[in-house]
């Protein structure tokens, strides 16, 4: 359907998704309905259903895709080359800078949706899971390069280490969101890097 939209139509659709994503990120899923999105975008009921014929469900799935991209883009360009100790430190600094600038509000764009949508919408759950898999793949590529270059022990279980790091990061996001303190995320990232350091090759 996207091919049939005019440039103006595509821009309107994107604006609706952005508004819905921002509202859900700030207020939570339960507090956001179609009328809230309409008010934020100055669009009519007919316009929203033109771009999202299945209504709120279809819009929420578009939000998941948008927030997945946002979560990954928040970590770029560092996320794309996590193949050295220095690159992981730079990744940590980038995340802290991004979320400090946001006032530690909202948590992880992807993780916050997982808590709100994964149990109620199987398709959203699939998209969220795929988003986390993409995130893990970036970690795994970098860690595998470090193992190959001798920066990690040869016996390092790369997939397990990547999952542990992601779990720590997500835990840090939850604590940051609850406390409105980026220090909680900082502590979680420090623990993740300590885990990485403990997997380092001696010498």
Automatic annotation (TrEMBL):
The keyword DNA-binding applies. The keyword Metal-binding does not apply. Residues 10-70 form the HTH tetR-type domain. Residues 33-52 bind DNA. Coiled coil: none annotated. Keywords: DNA-binding, Transcription, Transcription regulation. InterPro entries: Homeodomain-like_sf, HTH_TetR, Tet_transcr_reg_TetR-rel_C_sf, TetR_C. Pfam families: TetR_C_13 (PF16925), TetR_N (PF00440). This is TetR/AcrR family transcriptional regulator.
